[in-house]
Write a structure and sequence with these properties.
alpha/beta; Cobalt-precorrin-4 Transmethylase, domain 1; 40% helix; 164 residues; five-stranded parallel β-sheet
Length: 164
């Protein structure tokens, strides 16, 4: 695994199917890690991000797929973020950052017990560029940025956030 040199993050919102898969191709992603609890996105424009379609297209591209539901936010964190968004009058798809409460819950309930080696052990030996995928457009509005920072620090690799 010593050859891995980058982690990219990507969210579905804001991309078309074509631009989403092109971004992965341009980033030279070879291994895709889905960190969503529910592997679907509402709206016909995002049908490409629904699990079966997504996995089929990635397979066509030669990109390996891995689902790590244990790295998705717990229900309590999602509820608290929804409440913070409502209080701020921000639609979920327009959010630009996570609430401090969400971050605290995610770090305490997910990252504190997460061993980066457990993910690394699941990755193929020839993985060079892995993508962490969730839904939100803005990396700072999504748990994938917290996870990427943790992995980048643990593994000493570059982090790049792909945005539409």
């Amino acid at each position: 695994m010593s050859r891995m040199h980058k982690i990219v993050t990507i969210g579905a919102i804001g991309y078309s199917a074509e631009s989403f898969f092109e971004a992965l191709r341009e980033a030279e992603v070879d291994t895709f890690v889905d960190v969503r609890r529910r592997r679907a996105v509402r709206g016909a424009d995002y049908a490409f991000a629904n699990s079966q379609r997504l996995q089929a297209r990635l397979a066509e591209m030669g990109i390996r797929y891995l689902h790590r539901v244990d790295l998705s936010p717990p229900h309590a964190a999602r509820e608290r973020q929804a409440a913070a968004d409502k209080t701020a009058g921000i639609a979920r798809r327009k959010r630009t950052e996570l609430s401090p409460t969400f971050i605290d819950i995610y770090e305490r309930e997910v990252l504190s017990g997460f061993e980066p080696q457990s993910l690394r052990d699941q990755l193929p030996d020839d993985a060079r560029v892995i993508a962490l995928m969730c839904v939100e457009r803005e990396p700072a509005a999504c748990h994938r940025s917290l996870l990427a920072a943790r992995l980048g620090a643990a593994w000493g690799v570059e982090i790049e956030h792909l945005t539409p």
